[in-house]
Design goal:
A five-stranded antiparallel β-sheet has the order 2-1-10-9-8, sandwiched between helices. Strands 3-7-6 form a three-stranded antiparallel β-sheet. The protein is built from ten helices and ten strands. It is globular. Helix 4 packs across helix 5 and helix 4 runs parallel beside helix 9. It has 284 residues and is α+β, with helices and mostly antiparallel strands. The chain has one domain: Beta-lactamase.
């Protein structure tokens, strides 16, 4: 099944999305790539802080490292007490507050991709591929419009550093499109990341909301920012791939919201509304 849009319909969708996003108190960037190769962007010329969306980029970089070294996904990682110092978001730390355990890389990716664990993210940067290495790997895939400079602890210590880890919506959508088409990493790493994203536990009220009970499946990765000194939400993001009930790619979508003057719930509603508009135009 190839989901496409004729040029007139695509222009109409773009105009509707632009009109909608122009009316909200935030900067909203959107990119869509259909299975038929049609593309759509709105406000793409802005650098949007990725926040935890970059954990998808990291998962690809780590997988490429494992593949190069011929290491399996059950490669062990030691969780040390020193890894669990900060009070940033970490379900792993909540489960093992004293460390002293080992987890597999597959388990680590589950923590980062499904639960957005910040400390496990930094463990992967430390043990396998650092931020510079992940950015270099992404750019080797032909993806421009992305920068990855700081880890989670860095951003927690200085929230403004979040703006240095940025992407355009199209760069994120293109990477996701290449990934889901199997052009970035091979098995078994591909299936691992794909399945973990299909089971993402965060951001249920963002891209995923219109798909509940639809028969379509959404694999996605969210990112959530800090509130700045002016009381504005620095970022609220979600990128995802949509699969038909038969498991075929329908489209990929990236929605980034920066500097929102709305509450987190209201900002999530923006992403859900965009997702619903795109779904209605392409699938209904």
């Amino acid at each position: 099944m190839a989901i496409g849009c004729n040029p007139t319909s695509l222009d109409s969708l773009r105009k509707n999305l632009q009109d909608y996003t122009n009316g909200v108190d935030a900067t909203v960037g959107i990119a869509v790539i259909t299975s038929g190769g049609d593309t759509l962007t709105v406000n793409n010329g802005v650098h949007y802080p990725m926040m935890s969306v970059f954990k998808f980029h990291q998962a690809l970089g780590v997988s490429a490292f494992l593949a190069e070294k011929q290491l399996p996904l059950d490669t062990k990682i030691e969780v040390r007490a020193s890894d669990l110092q900060t009070d940033t978001w970490s379900p792993l730390r909540d489960k093992y507050p004293d460390g002293g355990v080992e987890i597999t890389v597959a388990e680590a990716l589950g923590y980062t991709l499904q639960q957005s664990d910040n400390l496990v993210c930094d463990m992967l940067f430390d043990r396998f591929v650092d931020t510079d290495g992940v950015e270099a790997f992404i750019k080797r895939q032909g993806i421009e419009g992305v920068a990855i400079r700081y880890n989670e602890v860095d951003m927690y210590g200085d929230h403004m550093l979040s703006y240095a880890n940025w992407s355009t919506p199209y760069a994120a959508a293109l990477l996701l499109d290449k990934f889901i088409d199997g052009k970035v990493i091979g098995e078994p790493y591909y299936d691992c990341i794909r399945d973990l994203m299909l089971g993402c536990e965060t951001g249920v009220n963002r891209l995923a909301r219109p798909f509940e009970g639809s028969g379509y499946k959404l694999g996605h990765k969210t990112g959530s920012g800090y509130v700045d000194a002016a009381g504005r939400l620095m970022a609220c993001n979600d990128i995802g791939f949509v699969l038909s009930p038969e498991g075929k790619k329908a489209y990929v979508i990236a929605v980034f919201v920066r500097d929102s003057g709305l509450t987190e719930k209201e900002t999530e509603d923006i992403i859900a509304t965009v997702s619903s508009m795109v779904k209605e135009a392409l699938l209904e």
